[in-house]
Amino acid sequence: MRYISTRGQAPALSFSAAVLAGLAPDGGLYVPESLPQLPADWQVKYRDLSFADLAAELVALFVDPSDIPHADLRRLALKSFGPHSRFAPGADVTPLHPLARAVPRASNDDPTTNAPHRTPLNIDILELFHGPTLAFKDVALQFLGNLFEYLLARSKSTKTVNVLGATSGDTGSAAIDGLRGKQGVRVCILHPHGKVSPVQEAQMTSVLDENVCNVAVDGTFDDCQALVKQLFSDPAARDEFQLAAVNSINFARILAQITYYVHSYLRLKDQHDQLVYSVPSGNFGDVLAGMYARAMGVPIAKLVIATNANDILHRFLHSGIYSPDPAWTPQGADATHVPAAATPTLSPAMDITVASNFERALLAWAPNGATDVRQWMEDLKNQGGFSVPASVVDQARQVFWSHRVPDHEIVDTIGRYYDACDYILDPHTAVGVRAAEQFGAGLFPRTTVPTGNVHFICLATAHPGKFGDAVHAGLRRSRRAQGVGSEEALDALFVPPVLQALKNVPRRVVRVQDGTAAEVARVLRSEWPMVEVQKAKL
Ligand SMILES: *Cc1c(COP(=O)(O)O)cnc(C)c1O
């Protein structure tokens, strides 16, 4: 199994080389040359497997045994997801939580324009937040951390690899947890000082392992990203620090995520004719794993791309135009466009302007393959956007439906589901649930409609305790929480002890004030831990 670049101008690599490379040298993303199919008897063969064993089976389909022996893959999967992993012990790695059936109409639904909800609306929540940092990124990054350690241990190099990344929240803490204490690798994560949520900041900076370094940059997330890019594009820095990346473009992350689609499908398939997955989406990594699962043979009826106000994917499915600027047209394209900034929302992990993994999906649909993708990505960079042929949008609509959810509906949805189901959604998950409602309401002019007994699986991408402010706003709308007076009493409803405990732990972080790559390089060069230890304040 070889891995090729979506832009077609980089040499093909083995799986392990593609994992270590991250981005291809032509700027593209690595994808398998052809997508493996599930074995003919998969529904029987996989039926009773644990999450760890299923992950091992699925990953093995993508990796030649001469590249990584499959027994080693099994050990890595067990270490990442088995009983001694960092997932909550005793439970499923990704448990399903069925919701009660009758959920009242949203307060802002207009009965004259919206078809009535198909009642009952059947939803299972697929909880992906039982990992150490309480967000779905743990599933991929626990596996990737172990895989990195394994690949570095068997390479002959004695140089320490520095995993360098920028984060606006969830990725940083999940990457740090995935790599903490690992041999041969250090992890250095830049975040904008004072601009990540207090919980996320505490999660990152309270990890005291010697191979972990947090850098707080005076600036924005984009400034952090620019610093990381600057170091990666400097050959001397790449060589001195042996830089590596674990961002969501790493194919191993997508691969690990396929597991929970297959796992949940097998749990629910007997009760339902048609399973529709609703996925809160930003960089398109999570829902791409669903697309691959479907293409490999899992009969998923539809994947709903649920976006917040940052709706580039939703607009693409509607118009075939891909641009951060909603007003962009091929006619009005010019070389002087200003890149749009993301709109801050209540679901910040989905606040993106472009969806970095989307070019992998585009490659699957492009009439001229990588040649098209390369041209489209050049147009995106130079013209501010691109428009695809109708055949591409048609193929996309076979697989996906999409919906955009504004902040006020996030708050409303959290309140309604607490009242009706006694279940507290995090704001990202609420976007997915709201999109599922709209799909269930029959609002699908842009798609082939599934027939029969439709059941929704809504991916819960974070624990509500990580996003307390939005959840408080939602609960304040509910009847059930009306008697709850203080903010602390409201917290007690949903903030788990592990997050409460973060309030009083020491943490370690280096502050970078002048915001230059040279200063970040100085941090990388320094002996760790050389950094200030301070008390967290939440
Ligand atoms: C990263 C993230 C998302 C978006 O996932 P993508 O793979 O980028 O589409 C959604 N919700 C939460 C909580 C996240 O951390």
What would you say this structure looks like, in words?
- The chain has 538 residues and is an alpha/beta fold.
- The chain has a domain at 96-133 and 253-480: Rossmann fold (3-Layer(aba) Sandwich).
- Helices cover 40% and strands 14% of the residues.
- The protein has a six-stranded mixed sheet, with helices on both faces. Strands 8-5-6-7-16 form a five-stranded parallel sheet, with helices on both faces. A two-stranded antiparallel ribbon has the order 1-2.
- The radius of gyration is 22 Å and the shape is globular.
- The protein starts with a strand and ends with a strand.
- 50% of the residues are buried.
- Pyridoxal-5'-phosphate (PLP) binds at residues 135, 137, 170, 248, 280-286, 349-350, 428, 461-462.
Quick overview of this protein structure:
Pathway: Amino-acid biosynthesis; L-threonine biosynthesis; L-threonine from L-aspartate: step 5/5. The chain has 538 residues and is α/β, with parallel strands linked by helices.
- What number is the mean pLDDT? 90
Task: Determine and state the CATH class of one domain.
Answer: Alpha Beta
- CATH architectural type of one domain: 3-Layer(aba) Sandwich
Count of DSSP-assigned helices: 21
Tell me the fraction of residues in β-strands, as a range: 5-15%
Reported by name, the CATH topology of one domain is Rossmann fold
The level of helicity is 40-55%
Structural class: alpha/beta
What's the number of extended β-strand segments? 17
Molecules bound to protein: pyridoxal-5'-phosphate
> What best-fitting shape do the alpha-carbon axes yield?
globular
Distance between the termini: 48 Å
Order of neighbouring strands in the sheet with most strands? 3-4-14-9-10-13
Work out the radius of gyration: 22 Å
Stretches with pLDDT under 50, minimum 5 residues: 110-119
Report the major sheet. 6 strands, mixed
